[in-house]
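> forwarded from #structure-qc
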């Protein structure tokens, strides 16, 4: 069976979509190839997103990128992970199988370093549960 391709789309492509890409490729990589991109890329991957992934054994070397920088436009599924990306999804991505699964933006968290990292962990866990669960359901 060929791997299905999924695009995780966010605005900045620095946190949520990067975390989702890394988790899918690590935990569901035998069935899915995940890509991430942003409608307005931040140009970096948030260090706390990288730290939250490393805590669960995922060493992600992501690059914040625009959709046009991806090696393919042929996706079996597009998942928007923030409201702005869902509203500003490029026209060519609106066709076909698209779903919106919204997550809190951990980059907007405030507080101590530990409190902020806790928000990243919570978002990571929610992405793991909701997106991996969704991908498993649609493969049945």
């Amino acid at each position: 069976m060929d791997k299905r391709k999924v695009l995780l789309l966010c605005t900045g492509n620095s946190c949520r979509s990067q975390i989702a890409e890394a988790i899918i490729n690590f935990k569901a990589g035998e069935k899915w190839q995940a890509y991430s991109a942003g409608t307005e890329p931040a140009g970096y991957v948030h260090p706390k997103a990288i730290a939250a992934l490393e805590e669960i054994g995922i060493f992600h070397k992501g690059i914040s990128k625009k959709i046009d920088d991806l090696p393919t436009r042929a996706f079996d599924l597009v998942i928007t992970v923030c409201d702005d990306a869902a509203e500003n999804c490029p026209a060519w991505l609106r066709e076909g199988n698209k779903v919106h699964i919204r997550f809190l933006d951990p980059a907007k968290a405030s507080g101590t370093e530990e409190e902020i990292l806790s928000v990243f962990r919570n978002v990571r866990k929610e992405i793991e549960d909701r997106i991996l669960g969704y991908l498993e359901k649609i493969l049945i």
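QC bot note: The two ends are 14 Å apart (CA to CA). Residues 4-139 form a domain with the Rossmann fold fold (CATH 3.40.50.2300).
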